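COURSE: Structural Biology Practicum
ASSIGNMENT: Worksheet 4, Part C
STUDENT ID: 0417
INSTRUCTIONS: Below are two proteins. For each, the amino acid sequence is given first, followed by its structure token string. Answer the questions at the end about the second protein only.

PROTEIN I
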Amino acid sequence: MLQREVKDTRVGLVTVSDVEVSSDLKYATVYVQAPGDEAEKAETLKGLTSAAGFLRSRLGRELRIRRAPELRFVLDRTQERAARIHQLLAEVKGEEGEPGGGDEG
């Protein structure tokens, strides 16, 4: 639906990475990954938020449920955090390989 039916130009290549639905099925948090810098990601979220009512309606019809959950879109930063951890580990490993173990004192 995101790629074929949402016409908002702010919503480009978006990957849905996870969805958490509340126990009462009233709310759904949709975790998304979007390309670009922080400004572009913010615009993507604005576009998704703008399309939330349309998407909710379409989901209700597709799933044949009386009341579809309210959609809340959140950026999934898992890959960014993993890259940062990888970078930090590489830096630590590089320091260990230096003469003296990187600990002068």
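PROTEIN II
(use this one for the questions)
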Amino acid sequence: MTGFVAGLVVSTVAIFIAEMGDKTQLVAMSLATRYRALTVILGITAATAVVHLGSVFIAEALGAAIPTDWLTLAAGLAFLFFGAWTLHGDEMNDKDEARASSRRIRSGFMTVALVFFVAELGDKTMLATITVGTQHHWFPVWIGSTVGMVAADAIAIALGAVLGKKLPEKAIRIGAAVLFFVAGAVMLAQGTFALT
């Protein structure tokens, strides 16, 4: 039981710290201005659980040796796409809006989960999870890394929810698009530099 608790504590603390100030925390803040906090939390939890489950199994099978450069490039391209999509905005008429209102939670959940899934591929929290996973059993590391990530992002979600009530929608959309563009450009640069 001591090994379980150690893996749980180490992974929770390590991922919480790694996520502070990370791009995905900024993305959580921007998404919280567009979707309900619960929707964002659930989307983050689902995406994080899937990515970190893969991370701990990679750690079990391969140790710390994993080529993440291609994943970083793909995530960078996806972020540029999300930035363009966010900047363009969604055009809906009254009929479309009425139909979408019944599906808002599910579509918001899927959007958040997809954004976080892509953002986490090759991210430092994924790499931190793999590193901790090479030193502890996979199960407590998986639970702890997911809890640490969601806890750190909950702080950003709370801030985003507060800011979202005070900022105009156009400013929020432009700000979110800029975050996506910057994160995408950084990830592309990192992936390209690592491959050369």
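ANSWER KEY EXCERPT:
Q1: Residues 80 and 181 are 5 Å apart (CA to CA).
Q2: The two ends are 45 Å apart (CA to CA).
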